[in-house]
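As noted in the main text, all predictions were made from sequence alone. Below is one such record, for Phosphoribosylamine--glycine ligase.
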Amino acid sequence: MKVLVIGGGGREHALVWKIAQSPLVSKVYCAPGNPGIGLIAENVSLAVDDLDGLAAFATEQSIDLTVVGPELPLSLGIVDRFEEKGLLIFGARRNAAIIEASKAFSKDLMKKYQVPTAAYDVFTEVEPAVAFIDRVGVPIVVKADGLAAGKGVIIAHTREEAVGAVMDMLSGNAFGDAGSRVVIEEFLTGEEASFLAFTDGKNIIPLASAQDHKAVFDGDTGPNTGGMGAYSPAPVVTPAIHDKVMAEVMRRTVDGMAAEGRPYRGVLYAGLMINGDQVKTLEFNARFGDPECQPLLMRMKSDIVPVLLAVARGDLSGIELEWHDMAAVCVVMASGGYPADYRKGDEIRGLEDAARMEDLFVFHAGTSRKNGRIVTSGGRVLGVTALGATVGEAIDRAYRGVAAISWDGVHYRKDIGAKALTR
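Prediction:
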């Protein structure tokens, strides 16, 4: 069968890498792809938001399954468009992808269906938002309502920071339309984890546990990014926590979405805050996390294609997932300046050396080809991902891979996976 993957980042490189291993698959295309993806699939120069172009390509090439990576095409209704044309596609329909596209919708859904989450309110004007900040106090969390590429969340530790974030979003247009409404919520303490599951709108199959590192600098300091690294499994997700999340978060959310007339099919990602035996939901994403996707797919023993097909066809019954016992760690190497303005066009050295390392794979996230060389073209450039018998071994191997690669201005966190070691 022929598969089309939509996207061009690290998550999509991991999806292409895993899908291409399936004996069911004869050819993989990726739109728009990247130079790393181009080594294992055929890149197609179509943008992720070119819904008509993508649907026409899938029709012309007789694509058997399309897999959507990023949130933007889901929020624009690519799944609805493909299904109207009789094309099989993996991902949430537009009216279900709103669970990520609007934080206000997501919070209201959680409140209605008793999914544990932080206390919150939603604002479109500055004055009432500031009054809420003064009433609740700091630290406090200010979120742009819409899609902001993982950067629309400000954890404010002072009143000045909180009011500044509100002003930037509501009147300063810092996130465009995404910030025309803000969600302000209580600050939660604990340890974050990422919980992903496949669902057909009824059946729910959890993936292995994972933990992302959102802040740009070591020790979870500095501004939020799209993710600076991830590991799996996450020891903070104990068997008891896993069962609690399945019952109180995933089951209530999937059933709630169905009750709202928005049946959710695809992969559902819950960002969690875990404190002892308490779990609260920070957010939902309507797709695989990036960079969580990279270590998760390296650990997945099962062929992913039958699962993707079952979700796209709307019936997951009888599907089971197998996982390797090994741990996996992904370290994101970023461009100088990221997550603010960052450099582009720096030549990347050492990719061939890293490629020769055992149980290690370098996923391309923000790269392009210039004069025959691989150069940086995004904020998050590479996801160096390694397997190990333990998390500690996987950390050591991943950082050996990182040490082999360089470019001017590169930066990365040096403590990815450290929380797992303390447990």
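The domain at 2-94 is CATH 3.40.50.20 (Rossmann fold). The first helix runs from residue 10 to 19. These features were considered when defining construct boundaries for the mutagenesis experiments described in Section 2.9.
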